[in-house]
TrEMBL record:
The lineage of its organism: Eukaryota, Fungi, Fungi incertae sedis, Zoopagomycota, Kickxellomycotina. Residues 154-354 form the Homoserine dehydrogenase catalytic domain. It holds the Pfam family Homoserine_dh. Belongs to the homoserine dehydrogenase family. Keywords: Amino-acid biosynthesis, Methionine biosynthesis, NADP, Oxidoreductase, Threonine biosynthesis. PROSITE patterns: HOMOSER_DHGENASE. NADP(+) binds at residues 8-13. Catalyzes the conversion of L-aspartate-beta-semialdehyde (L-Asa) to L-homoserine (L-Hse), the third step in the biosynthesis of amino acids that derive from aspartate (the aspartate family of amino acids), including methioinine and threonine, the latter of which is a precursor to isoleucine; production of homoserine leads to a branch-point in the pathway as it can either be O-phosphorylated for processing to threonine, or O-acylated for processing to methionine. L-homoserine binds at residue 210. The gene is HOM6. Its EC number is 1.1.1.3. The keyword NAD does not apply. GO terms for molecular function: homoserine dehydrogenase activity; NADP binding. This is Homoserine dehydrogenase. It comes from Coemansia biformis. InterPro entries: Asp/hSer_DH_NAD-bd (IPR005106), Bifunc_Aspkin/hSer_DH (IPR011147), HDH_cat (IPR001342), HDH_CS (IPR019811), HDH_short (IPR022697), NAD(P)-bd_dom_sf (IPR036291).
Length: 365
């Protein structure tokens, strides 16, 4: 049996709980030995020796993390998981730097980690390397983070397979942000009528953005993904060494809250309309693109123009598109599909859990 403990039942963590609960109730999946035994948010926590019932998971706010639950304490949470008889995986569904910094301690206790949180893999290179060292042995604890790039799309697993089989990466180029994909697909297209601020509001309401959409528009979310890809490809990239184009209007960079940012963004609709008009006048559209260049081992993140017949120009919805150009794939290997949203991100985490379960959980009780 693989014990699963979720940190952060927010948008993505909540969708993962729903998927796991539905799975537990479905006779079709009776054979998968996964048990949800822990849940914690910033206020309350619960760890149980016996798996939570699907009905409790369906109403976790009152039945698991209700007022009687103990106050949240991540150190105690991890200690209790580490003492359980079966292997346990911590699923970090926060976007917290402080939580990411705890991964080495958890790995040292033998806990596995699955996460969509990009911080541990794109902050300090030394943290990334420490995590790699601690999860590097075939029998030891493992770290899976497919959902950190492209949500549920098989981006990191594809890159890792290319690298591990000895292919040489020439270039990885793509649209890595569901938010920025949605924005520019809808705002920058011939005949489009929606204003820039309206598109941002829809992306936020659809669950594509980070809690503060400025973390998407300032390029940091894409930069983190480019850094992660670069590191998985074997280069020491960091967000501090990338050229990043920040498209948050200067006057809004320092405003106190995401709400204030959203309410003032319409003041800048004319600015974005002008940029878009200039691109359309040359037969091009605007797209926000990240790139890892294999030859220079450098990366970039920028708003750029693509002609209408380019594959990046015809993307739809919040789709991501990632083109791997390698020695074996001079015509790029392309991964494309929904790259943000709670359900597809939870799917990416769930499929990582199944991989951990197959490696470490099956056959144990
Ligand atoms: N949305 C998407 O499409 C995608 C998101 N991701 C990543 O998924 C992660 C989750 O995003 P999302 O669900 O939107 O975030 P939310 O803000 O909706 O949820 C965050 C959760 O984390 C909890 N939390 C925060 N800090 C702590 C802490 N120190 N200890 C315990 N719990 C904590 C919050 O608890 P409380 O409610 O008590 O504050 C909340 O439950 C992020 O890292 C994001 O980048 C990755 C790919 C795609
Ligand atoms: N805000 C991100 C969420 C996934 O990483 C995005 O828009 O892609």
């Amino acid at each position: 049996m693989l014990n699963v403990a979720i940190i952060g039942p927010g948008l993505v963590g909540g969708a993962l709980i729903e998927q796991l609960a539905a799975h537990l109730q479905s006779p079709r999946f009776a054979g998968l030995p996964i048990a949800v035994v822990g849940l914690i948010n910033s206020k309350k926590m619960a760890v149980s020796e016996a798996p939570f019932a699907a009905s409790d998971l369906g109403d976790w706010k009152s039945r698991i993390l209700g007022s009687a639950a103990p106050d949240a304490d991540l150190a105690q949470f991890a200690d209790r998981l580490a003492k359980l008889a079966s292997p346990s995986v911590v699923v970090d569904c926060t976007s917290s730097d402080a939580v990411a910094e705890l991964y080495p301690q958890w790995l040292a206790k033998g806990l596995h980690i699955a996460t969509p949180n990009k911080k541990a893999f794109s902050n300090d290179l030394s943290l990334f390397r420490r995590i790699q060292e601690l999860s590097g042995s075939p029998q030891g604890p493992s770290v899976y983070h497919e959902a950190t790039v492209g949500a549920g799309l098989p981006v990191l697993s594809t890159l890792s397979d290319l690298v591990r089989t000895g292919d040489r990466i020439v270039k990885i180029e793509g649209i890595f942000s569901g938010t920025l994909s949605y924005l520019f697909n809808n705002f920058s297209a011939p005949g489009a009528t929606q204003k820039f601020s309206e598109c941002v509001a829809v992306a936020k309401a659809s669950g594509y953005t980070e809690p503060d959409p400025r973390d998407d528009l300032n390029g940091m979310d894409v930069a983190r993904k480019v850094a992660i890809l670069g590191r998985v490809a074997g280069y020491g990239l960091g967000t501090d060494t990338l050229a990043i184009e920040n498209i948050v209007p200067e006057a809004l960079r320092g405003v106190a809250s995401a709400d204030e940012f959203m309410s003032r963004l319409p003041e800048f609709d004319d600015h974005f309309a002008q940029l878009n008009g200039e691109a359309l006048a040359t037969g091009s559209v605007l797209r926000y693109v990240g790139c890892v260049d294999g030859a220079s081992a450098q990366g970039s993140v920028k708003l750029t123009r693509y002609p209408l017949d380019h594959p990046f120009a015809s993307l739809k919805g919040s789709d991501n598109i990632i083109a791997f150009t390698t020695e074996r794939f001079p015509n790029p290997l392309i991964v494309q599909g929904a790259g943000a949203g709670a359900a597809v991100t939870a799917f990416g985490i769930f499929s990582d859990l199944i991989k951990i379960c197959e490696r470490f959980g099956a056959g144990t009780k």
